[in-house]
Design a protein that fits this description.
By secondary structure, the protein is an alpha/beta fold. The protein contains eleven helices and 13 strands. The strands form two sheets. Strands 1-12-6-5-4-2-3 form a seven-stranded parallel sheet, with helices on both faces. A six-stranded mixed sheet has the order 8-7-9-10-11-13, sandwiched between helices. Helix 3 runs parallel beside helix 4 (108-116), helix 5 runs parallel beside helix 6 and helix 7 (209-222) crosses helix 8 (234-246). The structure holds beta-D-galactofuranose. InterPro entries: Peripla_BP_I, SBP_2_dom. It is found in: Cell envelope.
């Protein structure tokens, strides 16, 4: 392991909560004296959702602002494309590799190649399930279990006065991804003490509107009674809203909807009473990533886990936030 990565690991497992949008940016990123511009190789999941688009823009804008050379690759939601991109970054001898792993497993081999090449790796947005903690120096992103719990806690409060059964359908994120696994478990934990809640159907909509609509159509055909939709992201919720309306039902009234992300289009739907609660997942990680990469490159100690701060939104709060919503 490189001295730099070791130094970074010494920082241990401190968890630092930095503001979601971070202070970031700052002066250019050339090494003092050397004039060498920091080069980051970034492998992005894809362009599957409004959240992802905002996340990509945040990283690209922050790189420009920080004077960082960004080599950016879009994997179109395929792990093999991310692995190819990481290998290419290794060949190009970038200073730092950063990526948002589309799924949790299957990264050890390529991350060991990055380690052998003495190129530090930063995880952003999503985690990996590797047991070898020396394979990356830091993970910057949300706590998805907490997000799922926030969604479940809201449901428990919303139905506190209801005694009859509450039938829930769940649109899961990309199979095997950290947000899908963790939002599912956090939600299940939050509602497990309430026997009235029944998850009657649960299926992946792959975080996209099209698939979210398609799966919701199938739920509407197969389920005699649906009271609540829990969607792991807003894009699937927005696709499901189309299906619910085409089935002649009122989203937000006949079927209550709780979702995650907090993108602008979902806030518009909330202002129209179509989504009842939204748990924010902040995509604006760019400035924090540039700050982190500069520290790693300079051999400074960095926090092992940097959790983004996030909020929750009722329809009233979303309506008020709409005019200034960045994404
Ligand atoms: C969460 C991110 C998820 C978003 C989806 O951090 O990985 O991926 O919730 C996106 O919108 O597709």
């Amino acid at each position: 392991m490189s001295k730099r990565a070791a130094a970074a690991l010494v920082a241990g497992a401190m968890v630092a909560v930095l503001t979601a949008c971070g202070s970031g940016g700052g002066s250019g990123s050339a090494d003092k004296g050397s004039g060498h511009k920091l080069t980051i190789g970034f492998s992005q999941v894809g362009a599957e959702s409004g959240w992802r688009t905002a996340n990509t823009k945040s990283i690209q804008d922050a790189a420009k602002k920080a004077g960082v050379t960004l080599k950016f690759s879009d994997a179109q939601q395929k792990q093999e494309n991310q692995i190819k991109a990481i290998r290419s970054f290794i060949q190009q001898k970038v200073d730092v590799i950063a990526f948002s792993p589309v799924v949790e497993s299957g990264w050890d081999t390529v991350l060991k190649e990055a380690k052998a090449a003495h190129i530090p790796v930063i995880l952003t947005d999503r985690a990996v399930d590797s047991k070898d903690e020396s394979l990356y120096v830091s993970f910057l992103g949300s706590d998805f279990v907490e997000e799922g719990k926030k969604a479940g806690d809201w449901l428990v409060k919303e139905y506190a006065a209801t005694s009859g059964e509450v039938n829930i359908v769940q649109l899961e994120g990309t199979t095997g991804s950290a947000p899908a696994n963790d939002r599912k478990s956090g939600f299940a934990d939050a509602i497990k003490g309430e026997p009235k809640f029944k998850v009657v159907a649960s299926q992946t909509g792959d975080f996209t509107r099209a698939k979210g609509k398609e799966v919701m159509q199938a739920f509407l055909k197969s389920q005699p009674k649906i009271d609540v939709l829990y969607a792991h992201n807003d894009d699937m919720a927005l696709g499901a809203i189309q299906a619910i309306e085409e089935a002649g039902k009122k989203p937000g009234t006949d079927i209550k909807i709780v979702s995650v992300d907090g993108v602008k289009d979902a806030f518009t739907a909330m202002s129209q009473g179509k989504i009842n609660y939204d748990v924010e997942c902040n995509p604006l990680l760019g400035d924090q990533l540039m700050e982190l990469a500069k520290k790693v490159k300079a051999g400074e100690t960095v926090e092992r886990r940097i959790k983004t701060e996030e909020s929750t939104f009722t329809p009233e709060q979303a309506t008020a936030a709409l005019p200034n919503r960045q994404y």
